[in-house]
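Backbone geometry:

***
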Amino acid sequence: MTKSAAFAVPDDKLHEECGVAAIYGHPEASKLAYLSLYALQHRGQESAGISSSDGTQIYTKKSMGHVADIFTNSVIQALPGPLAIGHTRYSTSGDTVERNAQPFSVQCNKGRIAVAHNGNITNAAELRKSLEAQGAIFQASSDTEVILHLVAHSRETTMAAALRDALLQLEGAFSLVFLAEDRIIVARDPRGFRPLAMGKLEISGGKPAYVFASETCAFDLISAVYLGDVQPGEMVIVGPEGVTHERYAPEQPHSQCVFEHVYFSRPDSFVFGRQVQDSRDLMGRLLARETPAPADIVVPVPDSGNSAALGYAAESGLPYRLALIRNHYVGRTFIEPSQAIRDFGVKLKLNPVRSLLEGKSVVLIDDSIVRGTTSRKIVRMVRNAGAREVHLRISCPPTISPCFYGVDTPNKSELIAANNSIEEMRRFVEADSLAFLSLTSLQKAVADTRAEYCYACYTGDYPTNLVSIEQLIRAGKKSGG
């Protein structure tokens, strides 16, 4: 006898953030937005949405669930026009409910507008309180809605000027796509925490279409050419008059999220102008040089450990073996046996290949350890499948601090590396040995020769001021009262 249960798979990972896309000047803009979101599905699986414009009206469809389930042919047909923006979401701010799904669309004194963003506005609570005091009414708890209200309240008369006014009031991380009736406007925060790429798509017999996306893997699917990144502090306006690049904020030191290369982004993407696969392969190679292990085979924890494990195997000369098989079709809700099964959630996702593991000393490669609970279950799984030894290697430094720039990390009290030595962590995860990539090697792996990346989750050194008591508490610091 079984029972139906809403059961979220236990996950020790830093959760995905969000993905955004924008299309200008294509007769099937909403279809291209859909395909772009499909390629960006790994960045968020909670909800997805698309807003399109036919030049006079904005149409929006958004819902909880996966991109392919939401956007059927009939839904896409109801999103007409040559302009569209899209969003796929994992909540890092706001509740997991449909009212927080993006894009947000409103009618205001600047016309009909829609917006979607990836990141986290660190002063959103303060801005929201100020706007509410001015009479603003909020429908959702997402920080993205704050941006719309700032635009609506701006005294600037043009859409671009109002958005510029709004952006200058924001603190934190954001890559933003903005849809007006006749134009697309995109922008990145002055430090460039979150990625945003620009591409071009040639149309037979017409002007080229312009596309934007969180990762270039979206361009590959729709056959667009990658032109480069929207620069930190830059706003790009694409309208009837053409393409305009404008710096809306002064130059600041860059703080690109290194976790995009460690975990978030697909290996086939260019992110911050660098191929993600190259970074991860080098992470694995440097990890092998720093922390060799007396082992027979190298095994990745799929899929996030695959590329680094290939690099580790190549550098160490050990055979690479896919000895853990991932089920890619596990949803957030499924039927759970009434009789408890040990480590049930992990078994839904991964299954060992016993013939590859039996009697072997294994180097197990993963991208990170957060709470440590999932790592322990995976180590147990490999050992129970017959492995003689399990040497766990992590392709980034220990995660000791929460992130406030769009990554859903736990409080510092829940981060195992913030509260334990590596030896204590090794005992907890039950590995024969445990080692992490050094910060210096991570910097080398992403070719950070000009100190342009943010490493706050590994160092506790935040590039911006923390602005709320909640953030101070999550960071493990005491407020001044």
About this structure: The mean pLDDT is 89.
